[in-house]
């Protein structure tokens, strides 16, 4: 997976995006996700690929007066995790360096909410498959998985315009804020849907477009001509049948 790439650009990326995540997250995505979450009181929350911890900080501010039972901020890049631990200001959070390809160090049915914001679009199929399998294991059956990816239509547009550059065999880089280039995988919406379904999730999706505020701060995005920038998967675990919930008896 391409996530260690961020260890080389952690400081520049943090300076460019700050604690709002950049214009698109600031004006569109953050509010969309907060409205989906609704509350954090007494919930057990896991963030995957949390970067500099900006969304953990945002949740704490937006739900001021509420206290999560447990909040795990996880990230593969040690440099980004150090920034999150130092600067995001949540003393009660747990900060964990976690490779999505590995077994998550949590018991089954541990979390009410799992967030993966703009991380699966930087991972191989094998890494996404493993992360979804582990998410299904540690998510409670009435819990929720919220996943945001860079929209495949936007990535395809960048590819067609020659704006992607190779980063190894499976990965590319795309233009980001402050002249940074960010890792990305070319994958269709249908392929994402298949991966979620295979992991045992049902889901709804939403395509999110840039607003005029976003385009004013990132005028280079105007070349996308109205394409969505993000795709959100709002996931629930499929209900287990009685046969799946209990071991079959042996005669």
The major beta sheet can be summarized as: 7 strands, mixed
Strand content: 15-25%
Number of strand segments: 10
The backbone outline, from C-alpha atoms, is globular
Overall SS class: alpha/beta
Distance between the termini: 46 Å
Order of neighbouring strands in the sheet with most strands: 3-2-1-4-5-10-9
Uncertain stretches: 241-251
Can you describe this structure in just a few lines?
With 251 residues, the chain is α/β, with parallel strands linked by helices. The protein has helices spanning 5-17, 23-37, 54-62, 78-87, 125-138, 152-160, 189-198, 212-217, 242-245, and strands spanning 44-48, 70-75, 94-97, 111-117, 139-150, 165-167, 171-175, 181-184, 201-208, 230-237.
């Amino acid at each position: 997976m391409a996530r260690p790439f961020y260890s080389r650009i952690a400081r520049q990326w943090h300076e460019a995006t700050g604690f709002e995540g950049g214009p698109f997250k600031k004006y569109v995505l953050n509010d969309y996700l907060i409205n989906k979450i609704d509350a954090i009181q007494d919930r057990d929350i896991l963030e995957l690929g949390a970067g500099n911890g900006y969304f953990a900080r945002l949740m704490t501010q937006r739900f001021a007066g509420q206290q999560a039972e447990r909040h795990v901020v996880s990230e593969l890049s040690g440099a980004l995790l150090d920034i999150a631990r130092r600067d995001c200001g949540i003393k009660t959070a747990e900060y964990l360096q976690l490779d999505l390809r590995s077994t998550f160090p949590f018991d089954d049915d541990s979390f009410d909410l799992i967030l993966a914001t703009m991380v699966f679009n930087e991972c191989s199929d094998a890494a996404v498959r493993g992360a979804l399998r582990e998410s299904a294991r540690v998510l409670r059956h009435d819990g929720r998985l919220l996943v945001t990816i860079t929209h495949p239509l936007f990535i395809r547009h960048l590819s067609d315009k020659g704006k992607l550059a190779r980063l190894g065999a499976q990965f590319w880089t795309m233009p980001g804020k402050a002249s940074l280039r960010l890792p990305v995988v070319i994958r269709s919406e249908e392929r994402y849907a298949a991966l979620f379904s295979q992991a045992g999730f049902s889901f709804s999706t939403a395509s999110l477009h840039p607003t005029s505020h976003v385009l004013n701060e990132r005028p280079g995005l105007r070349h996308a001509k109205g394409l969505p920038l993000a795709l959100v998967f709002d996931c629930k675990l499929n209900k287990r049948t009685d046969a799946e919930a209990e071991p079959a008896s042996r005669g």
